[in-house]
Amino acid sequence: MNKIRWTVPSDHPAFPGHFPGRPILPGVVLIDQAMRLAPLAAGQAIRGLASAKFFQPVPPGAELVFRFAPATARGMGFEIRLGETTVASGSFTFGAAP
Prior knowledge:
Elements: E1 2-7, H1 27-42, E2 46-54, E3 63-68, E4 75-82, E5 85-94
Antiparallel strand pairs: 1-3, 2-5, 3-4, 4-5
């Protein structure tokens, strides 16, 4: 399983307003970052998101580990962890859009 670390910037533009007084990283930002890192782990382009689940909020400055399962002909799974806690998981599909 490939692992790639990413520290969430404390000044990420998604934090203001999401949510005032208790900022958390929106799930779409987690998926976007996973989609940017997945080709590094898989060696091929991501076509789309097949599934995603969110389990825990991610605060500013969090050091995340993106874990990518071995690629298959159809795609690959991923898991995003904060320490020992899984904060999100899902899978991507490969290839060009039809």
